[in-house]
Structures are given as C-alpha cells and as structure tokens.
Amino acid sequence: MVKLKDQLILREVAGEYVIVPTGQRVREVTNVVCISSSAAYLWDYMKDHEFTKEELIQRILEHYQGVTREQAEQDIERFLTILSDNGILDNGVILGNSLVKVPREVLDKLWPKGTKLKRADEKGEVR
User: Fold this and answer.
1) pTM above 0.85, yes or no
2) Distance of CA 85 to CAs 69, 79, 99, 119, Å?
3) Is 10 inside a domain boundary?
4) For helices 37-46 and 69-85, what crossing angle results, to 10°?
5) Is 116 a member of any domain?
6) How many structural domains are present in the chain?
7) Contacts for 31-35 with beta carbons within 8 Å, 24 or more apart?
8) In angstroms, how far is CA 32 from the centroid of its own chain?
9) Residue 29 CA from chain centroid, whole number
10) Per residue of the chain (127 residues), what is the pLDDT tens digit?
11) 76: domain range?
C-alpha cells in the first residue's frame, strides 16, 4: 500500500491540474508537477486513501469506457513514476540528501584510527 504525502493539494490553473505543495512540503517538492484530468480523477481518491497500483487500474477501467487493461497499466505506471520521482508518494523512498549522525563509538568500530578512507569522484571511481 502506498499513499500520497500530506500537505499537497491539487489545483486547476488555466485548464491544467497542478500539484501544489504547502507548509513544510514546499522544501521537498520543488518541481511544478502537472497531471492530466484522468490523473486528477485518481488524485481525488488517492488523497484520502492508501492504494495499490491495481486499485488505480481498476478505478480507471471502471470510470472510462474503451480503455484497455494494458493501456491503463502503462498509464498508471507512468503516473506513479512521476509522483515518486517528484517526492509526492509516501512510499518509503527518500529523495535528495540525508544527514545521519553516527555516534563516534560506531565510527571508531567501523574505521579504526589510522584507517585511510578513500573517496569516490563524480563518476563513482575510488581514488
């Protein structure tokens, strides 16, 4: 089960549906994310419920005539990827940088004094 993060609202602006972060969420969701009217239909459900990909597919198939299951699966996958990539889904994935404080005792066990640490460059190559 997945859910939308809190402090996100959907607004219709000039005929476009735009996901707008509010409160503390403004710091995390920095891109303007526009979604289709079909996605806005799903958003109305998603904002109040935990959901699965399958539930969203079923909602589309029941709401829209002429949509094949294959097309619905592709569209939902693309929609969920956009939401996940923009930090909108509460799916356990942390985007961006994180700071973790590690006690000195733990660091000393992992890297005893005198251990030379190697750093990776931008390409991931260790020097």
Assistant:
1) no
2) 24, 10, 20, 27
3) yes
4) 70
5) no
6) 1
7) 31/86, 33/82, 33/83, 33/86, 33/88, 35/10, 35/79, 35/82
8) 13
9) 9
10) 899 999 999 999 988 999 999 998 888 888 889 999 999 999 999 999 999 999 999 999 999 999 999 999 999 999 999 999 999 998 765 544 444 566 777 667 766 777 665 655 555 565 5
11) 3-110
Residue 124 in any domain: the answer is: no
Tokens of 87: 């930090």
**Which tokens belong to 89?**
């889904």
**Which residues contact residue 58 at a Cβ distance below 8 angstroms, ignoring those fewer than 6 apart?**
none
Half-sphere exposure of residue 60, counting CA atoms within 13 Å on the CB side? 27
Q: Is residue 127 part of a domain?
A: no
**CA–CA distance, 42 with 56 (Å, rounded to integer):** 7
The distance from CA 24 to its chain's CA centroid, rounded to whole angstroms, is 16
Amino acid at position 116, single letter: K
**Token digits of residue 112:** 């005893």
The radius of gyration of the chain's CA atoms, rounded to the nearest angstrom, is: 21
Tokens standing for 85? 């990539």
Buried b (16+ CB within 10 A) or exposed e, 94-127: eeeeeeeeeeeeeeeeeeeeeeeeeeeeeeeeee
